[in-house]
Write a structure and sequence with these properties.
GO terms for molecular function: ATP binding; metal ion binding; nucleoside diphosphate kinase activity. Its EC number is 2.7.4.6. Major role in the synthesis of nucleoside triphosphates other than ATP. The ATP gamma phosphate is transferred to the NDP beta phosphate via a ping-pong mechanism, using a phosphorylated active-site intermediate. The chain has helices spanning about 10-15, 20-30, 45-50, 60-65, 80-90, 100-105, 120-130; strands at about 1-10, 30-40, 70-80, 115. With about 130 residues, it is α+β, with helices and mostly antiparallel strands. The protein has a single domain (about 1-130), classed as Alpha-Beta Plaits (2-Layer Sandwich), CATH 3.30.70.141. It starts with a strand and ends with a helix. The structure holds adenosine-3',5'-cyclic-monophosphate.
């Protein structure tokens, strides 16, 4: 089923010049890139984007990291985009993510975990509104 998803190349990956590497994996997989945007999250935008985590103990760390430098947001389209993208990015804790996944190949962090991707249609709707507003 053709579907859209969103991913964000996080500040750690942008700083490490991994933008092209990350985007090219989605292109090579067969996804079409519909939108691309480089920007720096404001505090308000970050709190809105990650609103689902607002009561978590790591919320401050999360928003402070995501606002710490430029990110690249993409909306992609292809078969089963939301679930397939989650498989491609790997486990949240980069140090446990399987080799072959994006986090597994490029990171060791938890907050600093290279990439975010929508995990449901609802999160895609919300996150794409915030990132591309
Ligand atoms: P992401 O996929 O962007 O979704 C929420 C983020 O919160 C997650 O990646 C991690 O970077 C971060 N996160 C989740 N749990 C923790 C935690 N216990 N400590 C620090 N960061 C966390």
């Amino acid at each position: 089923m053709t579907e859209k998803s969103l991913f964000i190349v996080k500040p750690d990956a942008v700083a490490r010049n991994l933008v092209g590497e990350v985007i090219s994996r989605f292109e090579r997989k067969g996804f079409k890139i519909l939108k691309l945007k480089m920007f720096t999250f404001t505090q308000e935008q970050a709190e809105n984007f990650y609103g689902v985590h607002k009561d978590k103990p790591f919320f401050g760390e999360l928003t402070s990291f995501i606002t710490s430098g430029p990110v690249v947001a993409a909306i992609i389209e292809g078969n089963n985009a939301i679930a397939t993208t989650r498989i491609m990015i790997g486990a949240t804790k980069s140090f446990e993510a399987a080799p072959g996944s994006i986090r597994g190949d490029f990171g060791l962090g938890f907050s600093e975990n290279i990439i975010h991707a929508s995990d449901s249609q609802e999160s895609f709707d919300h996150e794409s509104r915030v990132a591309f507003e």
